[in-house]
């Protein structure tokens, strides 16, 4: 397998992540410079912390189920050419996202 294709994909993801971090930082700085209310700043920081926590929950659930799908793929002797392999991975990803939304909805 040619792994050279992953270089531009990784570069694109890193550029998008860097732009997001810069824009978020500038927004926060501008909010502090304009003397935003203390309650608004606290609410934004609390929301950011909660989003980070839920993001970890979401990706933890999705990646755990995708790992289980790869394990099931090996148990079922499915190869990369079998359509059931892709279906198994998509179903595992979808179940992880649905499970996250179910759990996140209960905690709000």
Overall residue-averaged pLDDT value: 86
Distance between the terminal alpha carbons, to the nearest Å?
Answer: 44 Å
Largest sheet: none
pLDDT < 50 stretches: none
| Gross geometry | elongated
* Order of SSEs: HHH
Count of DSSP helices? Answer: 3
Number of separate domains: 2
Helix content: over 70%
Radius of gyration from the alpha-carbon trace, in angstroms: 20 Å
Based on secondary structure, the structural category is mainly alpha
Give a structural overview.
The chain has 108 residues and is mainly α. The chain has 2 domains: 1-36; 38-108. It has 3 helices and no strands. It has helices at 6-33, 38-75, 83-107. The longest helix has 38 residues, at 38-75.
Give descriptors for this structure.
single chain, 108 residues, mainly alpha, 2 domains, 3 helices, 0% strand, elongated
